[in-house]
Amino acid sequence: MKNFLMAVTNFIREEEGASAVEYGILVAAIAAAIIIIVIAVGAQVKAAFQTICNAMKNVPGVGTGVVCTG
To answer: Whole-prediction pTM value?
Structure first.
């Protein structure tokens, strides 16, 4: 019985499992931050490229080959 209690106590004090959970939470938080940033910046980048594409349509000699999508 004493051996069992000692094993349970060692299991509770073990921190390797806790650090794995912490790393998992950290990875999930980083992934969520990346997704939020990509969504926020993506619309601005798309608008910038659309503005450039529309401006190129008015350039003589270039405008005929420019095809803007979106």
So the answer is: 0.49
d(CA 3, CA 46): 65
Spatial distance between the Cα atoms of 53 and 70, rounded to a whole number of angstroms: 11
Tell me the torsion sign for CA atoms 47, 48, 53, 56: positive
pLDDT in tens, 28-63: 999 999 999 999 899 899 899 888 888 887 777 766
φ, ψ for residue 58, nearest 5 deg: -90, 0
| Residue 66 exposed, middle or buried by CB count within 10 Å (0-12, 13-18, 19+) | middle
Which residues are CB-neighbours of 61 under 8 A, at least 6 positions away? Answer: none
